[in-house]
Write a structure and sequence with these properties.
This protein has 254 residues and is of the alpha/beta class. It has one domain: SGNH hydrolase (Rossmann fold). It is 42% helix and 13% strand. The chain contains ten helices and seven strands. The strands form two sheets. It has a five-stranded parallel sheet with strand order 2-1-5-6-7, with helices on both faces. Strand 3 and strand 4 form a beta hairpin. Helix 4 packs across helix 10 and helix 6 packs parallel to helix 8. The radius of gyration is 23 Å and the shape is globular.
């Protein structure tokens, strides 16, 4: 009899275990922040001219599966009325060397693609650092990043672009541990992304270029809700939020 009672009590208590309620991702604070931002109405800027965008897969518009035509470059160009030229190439770094080998599509090796500034040219955007952080090899350091970025900016200035025409976009919000493709000499790489973003801010300040802190903007307006399943590339909502943040900054440049 005692055994039967014990069994009954076990079943009763098991059935009374606490189960956390399922949270609908669409109702999370991050989702609400992103939706609130995108529900606001911005008056489109109408600034005819050309803008050039150099960067990696997120400039290109990759969302973890495809290159989404509703990427931030296209959205920004349409909002402002520019002819936008997207030079984003997936998997590329700004720095020249990865594991001691010169990367042919790094921005250092692509400086020949920077156009001579013409009368209709408005802005030259650089959005690099994601893969410089992610590859995490001994030659991809903040010191070398700073030197290589200075080299790229020097080439742009020599082609007639002025500091006020150049925009540096910092490294997007993402899951840093999922971003890392190499462990690196130090093992843990927590804080690597922040260190590169600090370097980017210093580069912009030294050269007097525009600087857009899109990382903080994304954190404040959706954070993880803006990311695709790979935890690194934005989803379509993420690209819309990035575009919104960049448009706000450009409005202040005028």
């Amino acid at each position: 009899m005692k055994k039967i009672c014990a069994l009954v009590l076990t079943i009763v208590f098991s059935s009374c275990k606490y189960h956390a309620p399922t949270v609908n991702p669409e109702e999370s604070p991050n989702a609400k922040a992103a939706k609130a931002l995108l529900a606001t109405t911005q008056t489109p800027l109408r600034i005819p001219g050309k803008a050039y965008f150099f960067g990696d897969s997120i400039t290109q518009g990759y969302d973890g599966q495809i290159v989404n035509p509703r990427n931030w470059v296209g959205l920004v160009a349409a909002f402002i009325g520019w002819d936008g030229y997207n030079f984003g190439v997936g998997g590329t770094t700004l720095e020249k060397n990865i594991n001691g080998v010169s990367a042919p599509q790094s921005m250092v090796n692509r400086v020949g693609e920077i156009p001579v500034k013409g009368a209709a040219d408005k802005y030259l955007f650089f959005a690099y650092g994601l893969n410089d952080v992610g590859f995490n090899t001994t030659d991809l350091t903040t010191t070398q990043f700073t030197a290589d970025y200075q080299y790229v900016l020097g080439k742009a200035l020599a082609l007639g672009w002025q500091a006020k025409d150049i925009v540096l976009v910092n490294i997007y919000y993402c899951n840093e541990q999922l971003l890392l493709k190499e462990t690196g000499p130090g093992g843990s790489a927590t804080g690597r992304l922040a260190a590169f973003n600090n370097a980017l801010s210093a580069i912009a300040e030294k050269n007097g270029t525009h600087f857009i802190n899109i990382n903080t903007f994304m954190k404040s307006n959706g954070a993880d809700y803006l990311l695709s399943n790979d935890g690194v590339h934005p989803n379509e909502t993420g690209y819309a939020v990035i575009a919104h943040g960049i448009e706000e900054e450009i409005r202040g440049f005028q």
